[in-house]
Specification:
By secondary structure, the chain is mostly beta strands. It has no helices and 7 strands.
Length: 91
């Protein structure tokens, strides 16, 4: 993903990876953000109440996802290949 190297990486609040923010909603508009995350190691999701998470894998591989203490396996992907869950959920 060299074409994204010009976008700075921002560390996750919990230290488990980095995010490159591609786009974010304008002030006063409904809140949304498009970003590409790199998962370095197992990490707990930071809670974002009122915000939905939509995950769309960009590279082949596996990720174990725990939501509200339960392992989600296999990930129930939508027809577009994404997995959606409530941002208030805990890992």
């Amino acid at each position: 993903m060299e074409q994204l190297d010009h976008i700075p990486e921002v560390p996750w609040r919990n230290g488990g990876g980095n995010t490159r923010v591609i786009a974010v909603s304008a002030e006063g508009a409904p809140v949304w953000r498009v970003s590409i995350a790199t998962v370095d190691d197992g990490a707990v999701f930071s809670p974002f109440p009122g915000i939905d998470h939509v995950h769309l894998p960009l590279v082949h591989g596996t990720i174990d996802l725990r939501i509200d203490g339960e392992t989600v396996e296999p990930l129930p992907l939508d027809s577009d290949g994404a997995y959606r869950f409530d941002g208030a959920s805990r890992s």
